[in-house]
Design a protein that fits this description.
GO terms for molecular function: 2 iron, 2 sulfur cluster binding; electron transfer activity; metal ion binding. By secondary structure, the chain is an alpha+beta fold. About 15% of the residues lie in helices and about 20% in strands. The chain binds FE2/S2 (inorganic) cluster (FES).
């Protein structure tokens, strides 16, 4: 099972392969927005994946289109609801500036 490390809290927990980052973070009690409930429509679950990006599922068109319409996006950006865990550990950085979208 891959482990997820959350910045800035530094908390680490494990989750099943194939679980979305959003579901895993919510199950662990992390405060992450998810206004559209995982439909790639709101962008509020945007986070940065600092390590382990290649292990996650590839971003599909709805995620690319949503990210392209947002500000503060970088090469490490993912929508937590769209990124599914692979077998490797990941480190994610929760962001507060995207929560108002
Ligand atoms: S929860 Fe809305 S885009 Fe992820």
């Amino acid at each position: 099972m891959p482990s997820i490390t959350v910045q800035p809290s530094g908390k680490t927990f494990e989750a099943e392969v194939g679980t979305s980052l959003l579901a895993a973070l919510l199950a662990a009690g992390e405060p992450i927005e998810h206004k559209c409930d995982g439909k790639a429509e709101c962008g509020s679950c945007h986070l940065f994946v600092q390590e382990g990006r290649k292990s996650l599922s590839r971003a599909q068109r709805p995620e690319h289109e949503r990210l392209d319409s947002m500000i503060g996006i970088g090469s490490k950006s993912r929508l937590a609801c769209q990124a599914l865990l692979g077998t490797e550990d990941v480190t994610v950085e929760l962001l507060s500036f995207a929560s108002g979208l």
